[in-house]
Structures
1.
Amino acid sequence: MTEKYVLAVDLGAESGRVMCAGFDGQRIEMTEVHRFSNTPVYANGTLYWDALRLWHNIQLGIRQAAAEHEIASIGVDSWGVNPILLDNNGHLLSNPVHYRDNRTDGAMSWVFERMQRREVYERTGIQFMQMNGLYQLASMVRDNSSQLKAVGTLLSICDLFNYWLTGTKKAEFTMATTMQLCDPRTKDWDRALFEAIGFPLDTLVPIVEPGEPIGTYEGIPVIASAGHDTGAAVVGIPTTTQEYAYLSSGTWSLLGLELDHPVINDAAYEANLTNEGGYAGTIRLLKNIMGLWIAQQCRNTWAEAGRDYSYDDLVRLAQSATPFQAFVDPDVDDFFHVGDMPEKIRAYCRRTGQMPPESDAQMIRTVYESLALKYRLVLEHLIAVSGQSVERLHVIGGGTNNALLCQMTANAIDRPVIAGPAEATALGNAVVQLIAQGELANLAEARAMLAESIDTVTYEPQDSALWIEQAGRLSEQVAATQQ
Ligand code: ADP
Ligand code: LRH
């Protein structure tokens, strides 16, 4: 059978890539066509995404792939939460402001003065995080941004590139939900929320489901994929079974369950769990954990000091260090912004009465152990809130390259970890396109095909009693730091 080729444009917070998926009717094979870094830029005190450089690289990748194969379609996915504003002529009003920029400081309480926190959750089911689109837009209203006088259209990052590719402005559903501006039950914008913050309703464009055609780019059909990278990654889980949880492990750690309905109740609210819209009517009940961002920032700080470690070096360093010396709650606000992460970790340890890690090796071990232990605490919440049992954890994304963290995770959750693929997001993106073209029947068939095509590595839990005891220590510390 001849192969069909589709392109997945996958934009992560650390790197973007154009991947070419070849499907022969039985198996899928992914080739990396072009990878590029996604380096944010400070200008005049504001942190921006470099949208134009990303656009340049996307076109470069597509051109390279099209020179080698006949491309049946293109799909774009990207990191979530970021709104984009266009003027009435369709021009960008500003380079997209990064979700880690401090313009959203204080924006959450500003919103809750206009609509109660519990009601915001009731309407959206989305985890409260200051980076959410809701707070980004609210900060602009609060600060009287001059852009609001000229705004014509609200889009997200993946929508912007779909627009630049095709000339069509549409809001992709999985992405729209991450902004905390949608009702997951009606699958539409929550207009009352826009009214509460005073953001113009006439900026809203129709929401399209993943799988719908958007237009064409140089004759190639562009299909709305699962535009949110986490939505695409979960499509890309190579499984034929139930009773699993997943961990999408990259810049963020997204730990959750796939459900067919949102869980919006007091328990979910208390646990601050999110209900993100997924592919084919699914809902991702998950928790956004700070993730490998902490390791990325340690690495940057050390590189600036002349100690240039690869990710493999970091894993080797962590392996050489002493276990269980200190823990951090990865999700404290301090760790969210760009900065000297080792110093932030030392400050956290001093604050919580722990000996701060001194060497780089001890520091990175603290980061990995803390993440694994936090995964256990979050998994317990997910199980309690959903009532679903979990037999194993599928880890997907770049974090699957970190065998030490995968093993620590299996130990901490006392369940097997199945690691892979690292490029689940691009695979999920491609699969949505293949289903849209009738090459695959549905999500279940696609995942069975992925399970046949993809090699995974299984980590069995070891020394779990010890890890569970340490998770108890972290849990006490989390409770103490939240008081
Ligand atoms: P994003 O999509 O958010 O840009 P990725 O899914 O590409 O992130 O994952 C990137 C992360 O994967 C890196 O920050 C790093 O922590 C981890 N990683 C990548 N390669 C390796 C490696 N060889 N060893 C250990 N960790 C790795
Ligand atoms: C992961 C991710 C995550 C979002 C965050 C902004 O890349 O999309 O799901 O919450 O970035």
2.
Amino acid sequence: MFATQLIRKSALNGRAQMLARTAPMTTAVKTGYEEYWMPFTHGRKFKAQPRLFHGAEGMHYFLEDGSKVVDGAAGLWCVNAGHKQKKIADAVKAQVDKLDFCSSFNIGHELPFQFSRKLLELVPNRGFGHVFFTVCGSSAVDSAMKIALAYHKAKGNASRTRFIGRERGYHGVGFGGISVGGISANRKAFAGSLLGNVDHLPHTHSIKDMAFSKGQPKWGAHLADELERLVTLHDASTIAAVIVEPVAGSTGVIPPPEGYLERLREICTKHDILLIFDEVITGFGRLGSSFGTEKFDVTPDIITCAKGLTNAVVPCGAVICNSKLYQALADNADSDKGATIELFHGYTYSGHPLAMAAGLATLEVYEEQKLFANANNLAPYFQEAIHSLKGLPNVVDIRNLGLMGAVELSPVPGEPFKRVIDVFERAFDKGVFVRGSGVNIAISPPLIVNKIQIDQIFNTLGEAIVESAKYM
Ligand code: PLP
């Protein structure tokens, strides 16, 4: 049963909680919680009333008192196979005992080679030939940008140094990533220190033209033509690469308009500009396929990924590259006796044995449990469930694709994020964890989710939205 059918009944039960919530929020920090500087967090608020998880299994987190919270966010878009998958845990445990660390600088071990091969099997016949391992999504993005620059230089096009990102894009927190990213707050915090040679495409979201679209909106393919305008402005000879998320995730799930990615690909090819798909969220089954490139049948030159790469059990990122990129750098190194190293870039933890063991086991779990197919099969149900929230108070848009979706709420005047925080807290207190992101509530459950859990997520979210509307 979908959300709107259940809301009236359960909204009455939430009365006591609602009254408790109207008490003023203290920001006094609880003793013992001062030292940890939390990322992207209103730390004083959190530390006044910490929400701490003590365990997790499958679709659930556990609180200290043993109560269960449904994980409607796959942790942070990353625990795609669900929590505590035995095969992955066992692989990591065994690897610690066998080879805990080995550098990848001029020495190595078997696992990164095996894992690269397996990753390339996920995207067959698209020209990808090499994988570079990093430590997270941010380092994957910055590595991809460096690879793009190095490629053009190796090909004798050293003037191609400009990057084109997109408004409302999120590409992590490295200086490369925030420069090509399009989240104003992240940019403003470091304005003046961003990379200079960057321009941005317009984002593709328009409430006027596409509100409540199911899946890919029909409107908006023409926005890709803005790339032609930027090429005319800067000249193709100055542009190294375009980077976009196939579906923008962190800024509120924005699926690409039909035909948009295809058009970007055409323009990049025409002008010899590399196309980078940042698939840190859209990779590993989130859209019901291995990557967005398979889902949309559009092939970039580089894919960046992380998160679901290891089911988040060990931090890791990867840059999957078209063969021509590695080849150009290898040829360049061969032709210059002083430059034996192909790429002047790498991390102590590139190809870390624990991450590689986790990643190999994760790919086996995806395959054995047919999780990409499960996501694909459930996507229509998920779509109907999320769109059943249409018509609830303050809901101004709903977007979805695969097993990712967002409900956009109208902001409280002068306090744009207050409503989303309130809805997030109400849903959490009712046992469902979703992600508040600006004016959006984002939902991205692990791919092991079933219909009953999808109902629970959206019924609870609906209740929280209705209750919250009574107070703001
Ligand atoms: N790129 C995209 C598309 C992301 O969504 C994220 C994180 O959410 C990143 C990059 C950064 O990844 P990380 O937080 O692992 O550095």
